[in-house]
Write a structure and sequence with these properties.
By secondary structure, the protein is of the alpha/beta class. The protein is built from eight helices and 13 strands.
């Protein structure tokens, strides 16, 4: 089979073997003999986006090309991430979000709480803390908006609306029992709110946490439960559900170099509350080109995160290297529970892998 090369500067379709099946820009349609490939041509050297049922009917050229390769065209990819608090999206998935947004994918971020109980780092913002005037959650709405702008993400929502559920605090503290905290949320009610977003944006891929909530925070654990329930209720609308993951080998790399002052080094990887065995990780997204965007997003969360060079720290002032390669574990797919990966099998390099 001839391989089709899209030459956007010249605005034409050219067979790799040098054949004469070419269509000039502005001609209205593009055809490839033998493949039934057709679609709009934008007249400026790019592929148009005519979808089935519009214009002349039938799939656009980019979509047909994607189907020939068994993948979704970048502009038709839709990714939804469910995170517990503002800043979680940047710390765990910031580079991934920036990469997919830059590729033309629709990226939707849903955050479960305002992060009202976060520990405030800058002394001049200490008055925002829960035990002071309690306005931290409202302030963090602005921080999250700035972080999303840095990542190129334009669709952000709070689950059930801003303030529907409050930050529960770390596991075992009294705030876990306060009415309205996310840890005490009815899972079905929260999943119904998420399902409404799923039906609206129709993501092929969802990302949240594993059953441990990445590091044991009650709101992260609850987000996992809500994501699993909504994925099941979506009844096949979402193709794949992933959890964020930090393989121990990558964790060792992240904390292996001494951080710059004023950050403190990690004393032992074994003492950290996160990190999973490497064999549990199914997917590795190389988004190193988007590490600067991730760092900008981290800086936007100034009440919670300090940044120095390529390192960041939370309120404990322990420095961690920000990574441009981010990892995930496939939890479930539309075809059923995710099977264990065969030993020695290469990791996926795309969250949309295998979705046609």
């Amino acid at each position: 089979m001839d391989i089709l090369v899209i030459t956007t500067v010249l605005g034409r379709l050219t067979p790799k073997n040098g054949g004469d099946h070419q269509v000039a820009a502005g001609d209205g349609t593009a055809r490839w003999d033998g493949l039934g490939l057709w679609g709009d041509w934008d007249g400026a050297g790019g592929v148009g986006s005519r979808e089935g049922g519009r214009g002349s009917g039938g799939p656009g050229l980019a979509g047909r090309l994607a189907r020939l390769s068994g993948m979704i065209a970048p502009g038709n990819r839709r990714l939804l991430l469910l995170h517990a608090h503002p800043d979680d999206e940047s710390i765990e998935t910031g580079a991934t979000m920036a990469k997919y947004a830059a590729s033309g994918a629709e990226v939707t971020l849903v955050t479960c709480t305002l992060g009202e109980l976060g520990e405030v780092i800058p002394a001049d913002l200490a008055h925002l803390a829960w035990e002071a005037d309690g306005s931290l959650g409202e302030y963090r709405i602005g921080e999250l908006a700035a972080a999303c702008a840095a990542l190129g993400v334009t669709d952000h929502r709070f689950l059930g609306g801003p303030g529907r559920w409050r930050d529960s605090g770390m596991m075992g503290v009294a705030t876990n029992d306060l009415p309205g905290c996310f840890w005490r949320a009815d899972v079905d009610a929260a999943a119904a709110e998420l399902l409404a977003v799923i039906r609206e944006v129709r993501p092929q891929v969802m990302v949240s946490y594993d059953e441990r909530g990445y590091y044991g925070h009650p709101d992260h654990i609850q987000a996992h439960r809500v994501a699993r329930r909504a994925f099941a209720l979506a009844d096949g609308l979402v193709s794949k559900l992933y959890a964020t993951a930090m393989p121990r080998s990558a964790l060792a790399k992240a904390v292996g170099s001494p951080p710059p002052a004023p950050f403190q080094p990690v004393e032992s990887v074994d003492g950290l509350p996160f990190g999973v065995p490497d064999e549990e990780v199914t997917t590795e997204i190389d988004a190193r080109d988007y590490l600067p965007a991730k760092l900008d997003a981290l800086r936007a969360h100034a009440t919670q995160v300090s940044v120095a060079g390529t390192f960041f720290a939370l309120s404990d002032n322990v420095g961690q290297r920000a990574l441009g390669t981010e990892h995930y574990t496939l939890l479930a797919s539309r075809d059923g529970p995710a099977p264990p990966a065969p030993a020695g099998q290469a990791r996926e390099s795309d969250l949309f892998a295998g979705i046609g």
